[in-house]
UniProtKB/TrEMBL annotation:
Coiled coil: none annotated. Belongs to the glycosyltransferase 1 family. Residues 95-116 have a biased composition (Basic and acidic residues). Homodimer or homotetramer. This is Sucrose-phosphate synthase. Plays a role in photosynthetic sucrose synthesis by catalyzing the rate-limiting step of sucrose biosynthesis from UDP-glucose and fructose- 6-phosphate. Involved in the regulation of carbon partitioning in the leaves of plants. May regulate the synthesis of sucrose and therefore play a major role as a limiting factor in the export of photoassimilates out of the leaf. Plays a role for sucrose availability that is essential for plant growth and fiber elongation. Keywords: Glycosyltransferase, Transferase. It comes from the Eukaryota. It catalyses: beta-D-fructose 6-phosphate + UDP-alpha-D-glucose = sucrose 6(F)-phosphate + UDP + H(+). It is an enzyme of class 2 (transferase). Pathway: Glycan biosynthesis; sucrose biosynthesis; sucrose from D-fructose 6-phosphate and UDP-alpha-D-glucose: step 1/2. It comes from Amborella trichopoda. Residues 95-128 are annotated as: Disordered.
Length: 1072
């Protein structure tokens, strides 16, 4: 287009000058010239200051290389409009983001006020003033988060008699003990190294007997075979067990790999969410087995429960929360990186909408997992205070100010009405300094470097290859080296460092600058952000004529890093981290271990590191002069350099693994310790008889297989087709006297009833009202859980629920031998009184069920057992389950808050809910829903409760006619896991019968290691429409799209349909 030279000029200004040149300009009103659009002012004021589109430089290079003037002009015009659209889109997204943050701040303030007002009712006037005073103080921006740790006892050798079992979870990535493939992909990075080293270090602490690190088992041709091994030993224990007393068969640290999801695929972390529950069930099975084994070794015959379950990252945090709830043991969380923080950063870039970000990163599912982890965690471990205040502070479940109020009340012994905030503590990551060799003081070895490399740059002695690679850039390699080690990311602020170095002549005269910016082959093939930074670095080296003063090698190995630090130390150099914000700063600790003073950003983790080491200076990363002055000060002042060097060496032990683990165990010990409280009082004689019978069956099965030519002598369910007399004849024909004697011994203990007798027993079940002292669940091999949510428009159970129950009984009992060892459970949102009426109306004996899971999982009953009957013969709930789920249950606070939140949004005082007293119990608050169209969605209501410090499990149920709030650790899916933990019936041997939809906890019942049978066309309408708001995570993030563990009927609900579906799911899961 004619006359477009202004585009050329301003694009050059945009690309070459950057935003810094117009930062101080005042805003320009684009309407100053009437309705005429002023492109000059628009680009200078809006684009230069607002667009960060790093790949524009590549486009610009292609444009200027175009020789054809017309084509060049067309490309320039297209580029111009591209920038214009980017700026407009970014401005729109920024406006939406600003409004969202403002709404969130308002909601949080309202939540804090509501919580404080509700809790102030039982305080005296003086106490109210104290609490409000603390609230005001905590709102001071510069006031640091303070905690009272005066009564914290430090872990020591005196604790070695404790013999603890610790569970760590790191779900995603490739995890193994040796030859870690760090950097292979975004999921296999520093976290993998951290959790493996933490496992090893913890196992060597006094008082720790065993550490299990759980991760996903991967048997895929895409990765090494070692990731498919079920178990990998990391260490058998060391200095914590010197006396040999604690070293046992199962002691030490181990990687335990749990299969979940597709067995033959390596999945990235964003694709793992639907398989979390399956992972949890597999981990639970291992923990229960290991608890028994450790009980025999060190527990005096009693199970040794995990001391703590520690989740790393969001997916493992979600898993740890479920495991912690199932076992009732404390949970610890380390976020590593946080979803809300990432979401805020991506939105600020203005390149993607929230919907696009969610589709790519499953960010909303990740954030909800982090919120659930905060709900369940006793302790959250962070690397820095900045992470607590600026990152965790973004979450609904943590509020620094409200946490302070709750802590003040706890100190006074005042009731918090079920409100809770997890404890946040700073424990810097540990490091292994065993490979670090502290060099002699350079003042004593001034000639050492010269002797190594020669005064002319030659190398008379063998030196590390990376030294030669660095020194080839430098005219005088003997000068002190300023070392920066960071990837070429704009956030790392390398260009500001280079500008500070280039503009300070005294610093250039005294020192060299070495930039270790990752590995590269071709800048044009790198990501746009990295390429832009590297291109700018090269241009700035040329601009300031820094040839011979700056080294920027293309390649280095991880093993070269210690040698790079050593080279900088020998030149009496300085390490610098100029990042705009540094979450922690591990390289600062590495550099200090090698004797390098530091200059670091004052934003983030380096503040804590500097406070601990006192080995350098902190600077404003935006101030080039401050950076240059700090570097010059350390390089020029010899005494200061030595002081910082020795301070670093003196205090570096604070970041060692033993110190980290000592602090870790001390913090965990201060948590509220809990574990299953029930007595293992199942009668020993019955157990022995049952185990003996099981062994007898197994022995006969094995013999039958050995003596038969074909493998059809044993049915799928384990029943014997051979008659005992025939088996004896077979043995006699073989002529093996030892086997014959063994068969006779076994058969003398085993009397096989006829198939007709078995069928009759299964049909009668316990219909004769016989009472057992203990639930028969512990004898079951299979459990069929009927969890149908069939309700009419008034929330009453439909008659077809009874029909399906009867048909399920028939389907299971078609195989009498399987029926003998199979049990049934009924799981609904109804209270036990309504369940009994329903069963009575269908003439179904309640004793047909081994367990009743009532009121959405808030109560568990065992019909036909003494322990669940009162003196008047009425059913009573399991008291062990009631104490199991009582953790963080604040009934009174929930009632008051839910009533307030569910008031009509039209400004009236009228509430859309009414308490359903008949459905309430000590662990369930139930409400009628007057108008479901006005009800808040579950995730919205849960957010409001979290902001007020309240934790619970919320669900709409019974065709959206009821809202129920139950304890955090309670749910229908968690009740199933409780039956596993309490009575030993593995979840993998359970079958859950569902409709196509149901209550809002439906998704939790579909996934897991149990088999799921979905009856089509049975439940027409559920409550799931009230589960999530627009923009939240989706069903596909909770439930796998395809799974061999889930099967659907073809639309029928007859016994034949159900039986066929059961056979189908059994065949599909054989071998898993």
């Amino acid at each position: 287009m004619a006359g477009n030279e202004w585009i050329n000029g301003y694009l050059e200004a945009i690309l070459d000058t950057g935003a810094g040149g117009v930062e101080d300009n005042k805003a320009v009103n684009l309407n100053d010239h009437g309705s005429h659009f002023n492109p000059t002012k628009y680009f200078v004021e809006e684009v230069v200051t607002g667009v960060d589109e790093t790949d524009l430089h590549r486009t610009w290079l292609k444009v200027v290389a175009t020789r054809n003037t017309r084509e060049r002009s067309t490309r320039l015009e297209n580029m111009c409009w591209r920038i214009w659209h980017l700026a407009r889109k970014k401005k729109q997204l920024e406006g939406e983001d600003s409004q969202r943050l403002a709404n969130r701040r308002s909601e949080r303030e309202q939540g804090r006020r509501d919580a404080t007002e509700d809790m102030s009712e039982d305080l005296s006037e003086g106490e109210k003033g104290d609490v409000m005073g603390e609230m005001v103080q905590s709102e001071t921006p510069r006031r640091k988060l303070q905690r009272n740790f005066s009564d914290l006892q430090v872990w020591s050798d005196d604790d070695k008699a404790k013999r603890l079992y610790i569970v760590l979870i790191s779900l995603h990535g490739l995890v193994r003990g040796d030859n870690m493939e760090l950097g292979r992909d975004s999921d296999t990075g520093g976290q993998v190294k951290y959790v493996v080293e933490l496992s090893r270090a913890l196992s060597m602490m006094p008082g720790v007997y065993r550490v299990d690190l759980f991760t996903r088992q991967i048997s895929s041709p895409e990765v090494d075979w070692s990731y498919g091994e079920p178990t990998e030993m990391l260490t058998s224990g060391s200095y914590g067990h010197r006396d040999g007393r604690d070293v046992g068969e199962s002691s030490g640290a181990y990687i335990i790999r749990i299969p979940c999801g597709p067995r033959d695929k390596y999945l990235r972390k964003e694709s793992l969410w639907p398989y979390v529950q399956e992972f949890v069930d597999g981990a639970l099975a291992h923990i229960l087995n290991m608890s028994k084994v450790l009980g025999e070794q060190i527990g005096g015959g009693q199970p040794v429960w995990p001391y703590v379950i520690h989740g790393h990252y969001a997916d493992a945090g979600d898993s740890a929360a479920l495991l912690s709830g199932a076992l009732n043991v404390p949970m610890v969380l380390t976020g590593h990186s946080l979803g809300r923080n990432k979401l805020e950063q991506l939105l600020k870039q203005g390149r993607q909408s929230k919907e696009d970000i969610n589709a790519t990163y499953k960010i909303m599912r990740r954030i909800e997992a982090e919120e659930l982890s905060l709900d369940a965690a006793e302790l959250v471990i962070t690397s820095t205070k900045q992470e607590i205040e600026e990152q965790w502070g973004l979450y609904d479940g943590f509020d620094v100010k409200l946490e302070k109020v709750l802590r003040a009340r706890a100190r006074r012994g005042v009731n918090c009405h079920g409100r809770y905030m997890p404890r946040m503590v700073v424990i810097p990551p540990g490091m292994d300094f065993s490979s670090v060799i502290q060099e002699q003081d350079p003042s004593e070895t001034d000639g050492e470097l010269a002797a190594l490399i020669g005064t002319d740059g030659t190398s008379p002695k063998a030196i590390p290859p990376i030294w030669s690679e660095v020194m080839r850039f430098l005219t005088n390699p003997h000068k002190p080296m300023i070392l920066a080690l960071a990837r070429p990311d704009p956030k790392k602020n390398i260009t500001t460092l280079l500008k500070a170095f280039g503009e300070c002549r005294p610093l250039r005269d005294l020192a060299n600058l070495t930039l270790i910016m990752g590995n590269r082959d071709d800048i044009d093939k790198m990501s746009s952000g990295n390429a832009s930074v590297l291109t700018t670095v090269l241009k700035m080296i040329d601009k300031y004529d820094l040839y011979g003063l700056v080294a920027y090698p293309k390649h280095h190995k991880q093993a070269d890093v210690p040698d790079i630090y050593r080279l900088a130390g020998k030149t009496r150099g300085v390490f610098i981290n100029p990042a705009l914000v540094e979450p922690f700063g591990l390289t600062l600790i590495e550099a200090a271990a090698h004797g390098l003073p530091m200059v670091a950003t004052k934003n983030g983790g380096p503040v804590d590191i500097h406070r601990a080491l006192n080995n350098g200076l902190l600077v404003d990363p935006h101030d080039e002069k401050a950076i240059a002055d700090a570097l010059l000060k350390l390089v020029a002042e010899k005494n200061l350099w030595h002081e910082c060097r020795w301070n670093g060496w003196k205090n570096i032990h604070l970041f060692s693994w033993p110190e980290h683990c000592r602090t870790y165990l001390s913090r965990v010990a201060a948590c509220r310790m809990r574990h299953p409280q029930w007595k293992t009082d199942t009668p020993v004689d019955d157990t022995v008889v049952e185990e003996s019978m099981g062994d007898s069956l197994k022995d006969v099965h094995d013999m039958s297989l050995r003596l038969s030519v074909d493998g059809d002598k044993i049915s799928v369910n384990g029943s014997l087709e051979n008659d005992p007399a025939e088996l004896e004849k077979m043995v006699a024909l073989k002529g093996d006297k030892e086997v014959s004697d063994q068969v006779k011994r076994v058969l003398s203990r085993l009397k096989k009833p006829s198939a007709a007798t078995l069928g009759a027993e299964a049909g009668k079940k316990q219909g004769e009202n016989t009472m057992n002292k203990y639930p028969v669940l512990w004898r079951r091999r299979k459990l069929f859980v009927i969890a149908l949510d069939c309700y009419d428009d008034h929330g009453k159970p439909e008659s077809k629920m009874l029909q399906v129950i009867q048909e399920t009984f028939k389907a299971v009992r078609t195989d009498p031998s399987a029926a003998r060892f199979s049990g049934f459970a009924l799981s609904t949102a109804m209270p036990v009184s309504e369940i009994l009426k329903l069963l009575e109306s269908g003439k179904i004996q309640v004793t047909e069920f081994d367990a009743l899971i009532c009121s959405s999982g808030s109560e568990v009953y065992y019909p036909g057992t003494y322990q669940c009957m009162d003196e008047e013969g009425r059913l009573c709930a399991d008291p062990d389950y009631a104490s199991h789920i009582d953790y963080r249950w604040g009934c009174d606070g929930l009632k008051k808050t839910i009533s307030k939140l569910m008031s009509s949004s039209e400004g009236k005082d009228e509430s859309i809910i009414q308490e359903d007293k008949a459905s309430c119990n000590s662990h369930c608050v139930s409400y009628f829903i007057k108008d479901s169209t006005k009800a808040r969605k579950v995730d919205d209501l849960r957010q409001k409760l979290r902001m007020r410090g309240l934790r619970c499990h919320l669900m709409y149920c019974r065709n959206s006619t009821r809202l129920q709030a139950i304890p955090l650790l309670a749910s229908r899916s968690q009740a199933i896991r409780y039956l596993f933990v309490r009575w030993g019936l593995n979840v993998a041997n359970m079958y859950v019968v569902l409709g196509e939809t149901g209550d809002t906890d439906y998704e939790e019942l579909v996934s897991g290691s149990h088999k799921t049978l979905i009856l089509k066309d049975l439940v027409k309408k559920g409550s799931e429409e009230l589960l999530r708001t627009l923009g939240s995570y989706q069903r596909g993030d909770m439930v796998p799209e395809e799974s061999p563990l889930v099967v659907c009927t073809n639309g029928g609900q007859t016994a034949e349909d159900i039986s066929n579906a059961l056979k189908q799911v059994y065949k599909a899961t054989v071998g898993l």
